[in-house]
């Protein structure tokens, strides 16, 4: 999922930057994803495997949310979705 998300975002952002010369910012859910993954890995290293497992599962849900938010934002640039 992470690879697909990053590849999708990279391709779309590269295209939009070439077309619009605009720099695109990260979103908050992307930052939350990184924090939750870091917490999950830390818990795993500390031997708290069960808690780490559920933390990484939570991170997967945040990853999907983040991906959807990025796609929604970029689709607005293509004028596929109306601006809110």
Please summarize what this structure is:
This protein is mainly α. It has helices spanning about 1-20, 30-45, 50-75.
Overall mean pLDDT stands at 83
Order of helix and strand elements from N to C terminus:
HHH
Sheet with the most strands, sense and barrel status? none
* Low-pLDDT ranges: none
Kindly state the percentage of residues in helix.
Answer: over 70%
Q: What is the β-strand count?
A: 0
SS-based class: mainly alpha
Shape: elongated
H/I helix tally:
3
| Cα-to-Cα separation, first versus last residue | 28 Å
DSSP strand content: under 5%
How large, in whole angstroms, is the Cα Rg? 15 Å
Task: Give an overview in words.
The protein has 84 residues and is mainly α. The protein is built from three helices and no strands. It has helices spanning 2-20, 28-45, 49-77. Helix 1 (2-20) runs parallel beside helix 3 (49-77) and helix 2 (28-45) packs antiparallel against helix 3. The longest helix is centred in the C-terminal third of the chain and has 29 residues, at 49-77. 8% of the residues are buried. The mean pLDDT is 83.
Helix and strand topology:
Blueprint: H1 2-20, H2 28-45, H3 49-77
Helix pairs in contact: 1-3, 2-3
What keywords describe this structure?
single chain; 84 residues; mainly alpha; 3 helices; 0% strand; elongated
């Amino acid at each position: 999922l992470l690879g697909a998300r990053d590849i999708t975002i990279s391709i779309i952002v590269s295209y939009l930057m070439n077309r619009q010369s605009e720099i695109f910012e990260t979103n908050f859910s992307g930052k939350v994803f990184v924090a939750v993954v870091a917490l999950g890995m830390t818990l795993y290293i500390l031997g708290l495997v069960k808690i780490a497992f559920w933390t990484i599962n939570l991170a997967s849900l945040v990853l999907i949310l983040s991906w959807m938010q990025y796609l929604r934002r970029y689709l607005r640039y293509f004028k596929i979705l109306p601006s809110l």
